[in-house]
Input
Amino acid sequence: MTDLIRVTTGQQIARIEINRPEKKNALLATMYQAMADALLAADADPAVRAILIHGRADCFSAGNDLDDFLSKPPHGEDAPVTRFLQAISTTAKPIIAAVGGPAVGIGTTMLLHCDLVYATPAAKFRLPFTSLGLVPEAASSLLLPAIAGYQRAAELLLLGQPFTAEKAAAAGIVTEIVPETELLDHATRAATAIAALPTSSVRMTKALMKSAQSAQVAERMAEESRLFRQQLGSPEAKEAFTAFFEKRAPDFSKF
Ligand code: COA
Output
């Protein structure tokens, strides 16, 4: 099970690889747990000066496993997904993400907590919360309007349609678009460059940029999480998840 998240540390970089390609790197509770542990360990390890999160060049993550949503919905504040979001939103060290292929749901929202995000031209982002009968998570309802402006965020969060790397870069989610063959090397070079800088300056700079919003982020995450859990039990969400596995369009006309 732990092989679904591979964690390696070397040359001052902790690498967290999402490795469930047969399910498009959809995230199970155990995977959130492993990623939260890896982030906390990396933040506490003096040998680590940068953290790199990646999937494969053709798939970052299809977001939360929809089957898990049905069979094991997250309960309470100690749910693995909550632990992961708390960890990624409070990590003091710089986080670099390399994104290729689909980045859906939390596959996109986790990027709002990364410091440098590199994506391939074929990366496909999506925030499908309304089309799943859910609400945004990871404080994306706060952070996306702040970085992209209300109208752009409203398009992405209310319509919930897939969007390109170019659009993600224009919205401020992606730092730079790089060719697929160079994705991991490019992200690794950035992690290496940041790891070579004075660690106290890097940490203080990140903390200064984040501090004004950190209390609001925690508050919004808690509120989103409450509504998200409530919506997970809704007939609309059940219809959306069932439709996905039955490979048909959901029918929300009766709700
Ligand atoms: N949860 C569980 N299984 C998932 C999944 C998810 N979030 N995303 C993909 N899978 C599974 C599919 O059921 C399929 O399994 P199967 O081979 O046993 O049928 C396999 O992964 C491949 O997915 P598929 O849909 O055939 O790949 P694709 O390349 O056509 O599309 C995605 C990729 C990511 C665009 C599409 O799978 C998708 O939209 N997934 C759902 C994303 C989502 O709604 N996430 C939750 C956000 S809150």
Observations:
- The first strand starts at residue 5 and ends at 10.
- The chain has one domain: 1-180+198-255.
- The two ends are 38 Å apart (CA to CA).
